[in-house]
Amino acid sequence: MAAISRDDVAHLAKLARIEMSEAELDHLAKELDVILGAVARVQEVAGADVPPTSHPIPVNNVVREDVVRPSLTQQEALSGAPAQADGRFKVPQILGEE
Amino acid sequence: MTSIRSTASEMSAALAAGTITSVELTEAHFARIEDVDSDVHAFLYLDKAGALAQAAESDAKRSRGEAQSPLSGVPLALKDLLTQKGIPTTCGSKMLEGWRPPYDSTVVAKLKSAGVVILGKTNMDEFAMGSSTENSAYGPSHNPWDLTRIPGGSGGGSAAAIAAFEAPLAIGSDTGGSIRQPAAVTGTVGVKPTYGGVSRYGLIAFSSSLDQAGPCARTVLDAALLHEVIAGHDERDSTSINAPVPQVVKAAKKLDIKGMKIGVVKELQGDGFQAGVLERFHDGLDALVSAGAELVEVSCPTFDYALAAYYLIAPSECSSNLARFDSMRYGIRVGDDGVRGAEEIMNLTRHEGFGPEVKRRIILGTYALSSGYYDAYYGSAQKVRTLLMRDFNAAFAQADVLVSPTAPTTAFKIGAIEDPLAMYLNDIATIPVNMAGIGGMSLPCGLAPEDGLPVGFQIMAPAMRDDLMYQVGGALEATLLAKWGAPILDLAPVLAAK
Question: Is there a cis peptide before residue B154, judged by omega within 30 degrees of 0?
Answer without folding.
Answer: yes
